[in-house]
Amino acid sequence: MQNFILDLELAREIELAEALAAVNCAELSAQSGVAADVSTIAGGYAIYCGAGNPVTQAVALGLHGPVSAEDFLRLEQFYFARNEPVRVETCPLADLSLFEHYKERGYYVTEFSNVMVRPVQNGAGSTLRPEHPVIDIRPAAPDELDLWTMTVAQGFAENYPVTQEILSVMKLFASTKNTECYLARINGRVAGGATLALRGRIAGLFGASTLLEYRNRGIQTALLQFRLNRAAEAGCELAMSLAQPGSHSQRNITRLGFQTLYTRVKFERNCAP
Question: In terms of pTM, does the model score above 0.70?
């Protein structure tokens, strides 16, 4: 298995791919009448998709050089003007000036997430073996998007209760361009689902879950194989996924050949009184 070496160029590529996916969500939200907005700041994006929305945060800041005091002030004004805390997903390779601003302005850490990667192709240069013959995996049809959203949400239900907000956010991401959603079936019954985001040479593998009654039947492995093969067809080279450190999700995708490339840190500051 190939080992990837993190450098600034690769970090920029990954973080900007993530940022542009969130920007697409904001654009879709605005088209549907939601008060969404995006601002380009310090080489990244500040994104607003509604109060408390998981997409409402800044991404990819500080990867193109120093972050000025004026840039950081614009970041804070973008969110504080909407009575929203500032939340910034931060790559460890961001310019040190960004961390100095956090220190000076009283920011605190609220979350860690591992950015995990693997080659789209295996070490021999070929894609993975054919999908599991018992598991039928197909793209979710346009009229199956609600079914896909509910299936994936229910697969996470023991850790993240299914709420209308979660369903709405998942459907929003699923509707963005270059994103493909898949449903896995056993004997014609839906058993799980997953997402593939095609972003140039990077394939984002997200939202994979299995319904409780169908676990331990190889569905997640089959979904991974299917999406990697599809990513290879699309010309992608690097597969990427996210997981909280030490989580069940991290253990699962580590077994499937992913390695931790770096750990993101979410910095946050509440609205000024």
Answer: yes
